[in-house]
Amino acid sequence: MKYIFLAMALFSSCVLLANVGLDIEKTYEIIESVQPGIVPETSILDVILTLSEKNAKYIYAIYSDGERNWHVITEDASITLDGSTLTLVASETLTEAFSGKPKVSITDALALVFLTETEELQAIFLEEVNNQLRWQIFVGDSIVSVDPVTPAILKKENRATKLKEVRERLATKEKKEHPEKPEPPSPGKPDKPPKNNKEGNKK
Fold it and tell me: What whole-number distance in Å separates Cα of residue 192 and Cα of residue 15?
């Protein structure tokens, strides 16, 4: 299988990098969806080969869920495939289509990680953070980051660590989009009128 990945990587097209990738909300959804140890009967490679036979558009994400199905995000659609037969379960058109492709394709990134990891790959998606793109690949309890410009592994981190980072970014984004309004100052007590100085008025 490793040789198939390498062959696909060699023939994959390389085009100019554009700032396109999954946002923080979708990243969080994928991390929560993928369950360590729960994998479909088919592989990510099977998904790619099946979609390529159907002339599917560029793929930005493939990830499994707790029901052992595959979810795929292409340029303009979100697709769910049966994890056993790879038949179409559901399809939805995206409201905002993706418009670019990284130099390192999805098969390039998978081939790189597949050579160094022995566990089954459960997910891959193109994440965008601060206008920077990263291929994120789920392997067991870890997430491997691959540079989308040059085929190189940037880091490998625990899934829980990544989830914590994403939650913090979500909280920061929420605060920026919905800042807390300062509470209006509480009205003070009205000033008491000065007392008449009766002693001073006496003649």
Answer: 77
Quick one: which H or E segment has residue 170? helix 159-177
CB 40 within 8 A of CB 68: yes
Contact status, residue 47 vs residue 72, Cβ threshold 8 Å: yes
For residues 46 and 117, give the distance between their C-alpha atoms in angstroms, rounded to a whole number. Answer: 18
pLDDT in tens, 124-167: 999 988 888 999 999 989 999 999 999 899 999 999 999 999 99
pTM, full prediction:
0.77
Q: Give the separation between CA 96 and CA 141, rounded to whole angstroms.
A: 31
140: exposed, middle or buried (Cβ count in 10 Å: 0-12, 13-18, 19+): middle
Among 131, 150, 124, 96, which residue's Cα sits nearest to residue 18?
131
Among candidate residues 78, 45, 60, 77, the one with its CA nearest the CA of residue 124? 60
Quick one: tokens of 195? 């007392």
Classify the phi-psi angles of 31: left when phi > 0, otherwise alpha if psi is within -120 to 50, otherwise beta: alpha
Q: Whole-angstrom Cα distance, residue 9 to residue 4? A: 9
The count of other CB atoms within 10 Å of the CB of residue 160 is: 11
Produce one character per residue of 22-42: b if its CB has 16 or more CB atoms within 10 Å, e if not. Answer: bebebbbebbebbeeeebbeb
> Are the C-beta atoms of residues 133 and 148 closer than 8 Å to each other?
yes
Phi, then psi, of 20 in degrees rounded to 5: -135, 140
